[in-house]
Amino acid sequence: MDEPSHFITICSDSLGDTAEAVVQAVLHQFENQRVTIKRYGNVRHEDELRKVMEEAAKNNGFVAYTLVQPELRETIREEAVRLDLRIVDIMGPMMQAFIDTFDDAPRQRPGLLHQLDENYFRRIEAIEFTVACDDGRDLGAMLKADIVLLGMSRTSKTPLSIFLAHRGKKVVNYPIVPEISPPGQLFKLPPQRMIGLTMEPEHMLKIRSERLKVLGLPVDSQYASLERINEEIRYAEALFKRLGCPVIDITDKAIEETAGLIMGYI
Known about the structure:
Its EC number is 2.7.11.32, 2.7.4.27. This protein is of the alpha/beta class.
C-alpha cells in the first residue's frame, strides 16, 4: 500500500520560487517521501493569507514562506499559533543577519528579485535561446552558447540546460550517439565551454527501463540493454577525451548539485 502524500504549502508575497527552490533542495535529501507541494504566490493581503493558512492546516503539513511585509509576517505567526501549524521562515533569518551585521534595514517590498532589470532580460534571452537549441536542434548556435552539454540519452541534459538558463546562461545540449559523427562545431569550441555528462551503467539501465515502461514500450529493447549502455559510455568517454572537456558523473546527483559543478568549471 502506498504511503500517504505529505503536504508542504509555500506562501509568498512575490512568486514563491525562492521558497520552492529551498524546499526542493531539502526534498532531495529524503528518500521514499511522497510530497505534494502547493504554492500560493502574490499573497498581499491579510485575508488572503488567513485563507491560505486555513487550507494548509487541513492538510497536516507545514508552511514555508517568504514574506517581507511586516504586517503579513506578523499575521502568519499569529495564524500559526491559532491553527497549531508549523511554519518555516525562509528569508527572515537572512534579513535579520543583514540588519544585525551591517546595521541596515530591508526595503520591505515584495518582488524585488523579479524586477525587470538587465539581469531579468538576460535570463529571458538565455531561456529562449536554450529552448530553441534543445537536443541539438541548432548546431550553429553552439558557437554562440555559454555552455554546451554533451551526454547520452537520459543524462538530464534538458533539465540541466533549463536550470542553467534561469541563471542567465545560454546553453546548447547535444545527444551523443555512437552511430552519428559529432558535429564539427564541437572541435571549434574551447574545452572549458563544454561539459560531458556520464552515469554509472547500472543506474542508466534502471532509468531507461523505467522510461520505456512509462511509454508503454518493451523494456527488453536494445536501448535499455547493459551492453548498449556500456557501448555508449565508452564512445562518449572517448569523445570527451578528444575534446578535452570536463566530465561530470551525474549518478545520484541532484540537478542543483550538477549545475553548481558546471558553473564552477566554466
